[in-house]
Amino acid sequence: MLKQFxxxxxxGLIVLAFITLSIPFLMDNPFYFDMAxxxxxxxxxxxxxxLLVGYAGQISLGHAAFFGxxxxxxxxxxxxxxxxxxxxxxxxxxxxxxxxWIIGRPILRLKGHxxxxxxxxxxxxxxxxxxxxxxxxxxxxxxxxxxxGIFGWELSTFSVYKIFGFELQGxxxxxxxxIVVLLLAVLVAQNIVDSPVGRALRSIxxxxxxxxxxxxxxxxxxxxxxxxxxxxxxxxxxxxxxxxGFITPAIADFDHSILLITMVVLGGMASPMGVILGAVVLKLxxxxxxxxxxxxxxxxxxxxxxxxxxxxxxxxxxxxxxLKSRLGARAGGDA
Amino acid sequence: MFAEFMQxxxxxxTIGATYALVALGFTLIYNASSVxxxxxxxxxxxxxxxxxxxxxxxxxxxFAIILAVALACLVGVALQRxxxxxAKNADVVTLIIITIGASIFxxxxxxxxxxxxxxxxxxxxxxxxxxxxxxxLNAQSLWVLGIGAVLVVALxxxxxRTLMGRAILGTSMNRLAAQLVGIRTQMVLMLAFGxxxxxxxxxxxxxxxxxxxxxxxxxxxxxxxxxxxxxGGLGSGVGAxxxxxLLGVVESMTAGYISSDYKDAVAFSMILVxxxxxxxxxxxxxxxxxx
Lengths: 335, 291
Fold this sequence. Notes:
Distance between the termini of chain B: 56 Å
Strand order of the largest sheet of chain A: 1-6
Number of helices of chain A: 15
CATH topology of chain A: ABC transporter involved in vitamin B12 uptake, BtuC
Oligomer: heterodimer
Helix content of chain A: over 70%
CATH class of chain A: Mainly Alpha
Largest interface: A-B, 50 and 46 residues
Number of helices of chain B: 11
């Protein structure tokens, strides 16, 4: 039965929903909820990035720039122009999607490392602009962002909400909201992967020329998935801005881009649950390592390096392979 | 006006020579093993910081430099042997993450062993600047350019005249074929990483008297080296040198005439402009992909 469950395509989603929704019963510290919400938002971002990296095999080293653009678009539109948050979020996503489409066409013609370098360059340029346009963005000092308003209803971590007589703390409400977003993000990504578009993407990953030979419009699919993953990043950037209430250019910089792609690769490329695990591990690891003080950077680098050397396919795929071979061995023993 | 221009040019060529050496080291590893080595900048850092640390122990400057460069080469060889070689069948992007992990690790060790302070390395010779057309050229800039030129010539001779150099070239063309004619490709790869570390660390030592050095200078220099190598065309030695000098000059002109805030933005825009018109960089080879 366990084996059949593992084969079902939505099994991951059920497990994810079960784990994430049981968390509020296990902890009540606002700091933990803050961390968990941040993880859920970043995890949703890498679920989108995974479509580009894990399925289509295109490496982006500048994805944090789209996250940052979404965040700053929402921040500026809501605080300076008084736009409603939801409209700012969708307009920002449309703007980032358009931008990704415009720069994606010439960039995605490039192969392999030239593509990575071009995405790195785009990311750097956007980060530098955000840093230097301090009239709009507050520059390196950052800027504050009003709470998320959903149709006249304000979601703030500091409020207390009354639902059916229950008292719900604002930070718990935000956590639940971020989990709904994460589950939606996974569901949408899963549907894209299982659609003809997903098949086309995987064929591009296998061999671009072979894909083109059998009639896949590789340029179109590559820019489509580039736009989708950028829109994912933009939406999550907007939510992140409203959640934390304060953003700095660091969310758009190179280090953050590298962190995002590392989550994808460390967790397990082309596995939605894997990349979520990657996000959890890489967000929590620094928390555990702060005790080591000066040695923190060194140990973090060492763990990253060793994991990738010994588990090149990523954490979750390696764990599942071990689990499957155990199950297989037991079934063989019974028969 | 003219003096100003010359001044920016001198500054640009000096820093450009450093970028060129980093780009050359990067190209060497890329050719031999098609790995994009994000730890390239750490070799530069070890060159500068190592020299400072050894001089602090009372070792004369000349020997301190040699020890620092040797240390960097050792780290380069160890990186290949312990981190890259065991993962040889991994995905391209997995290898990138491994070198990023290595870069973070080396930076972390440097921070623990050598501390977080910025350090100055004294200039190699007298500080009397030379005046040309109203602009000032530091004596140290001449050292940077001179040593850079010597290294480039030495590399050309190494690859064209020595058996070792030709073994590396052979391995980069076709690893299996190289193995078949009896080249020990594992040794060659370690040698390539060692040589690359040598180039990076020498660049780090020679530029340190001009720009200061610290445990975290590596990452930005590595990125500039990539930009230079990409503009020149990945895998091309000539491209790396031209790309490095071009990048240095453009950066310095931008900082001088436009705004130093946007100097890095212009450097990265250059990649996009060049790749837009020449998808394989200025000197990149045409590659035929087998399906």
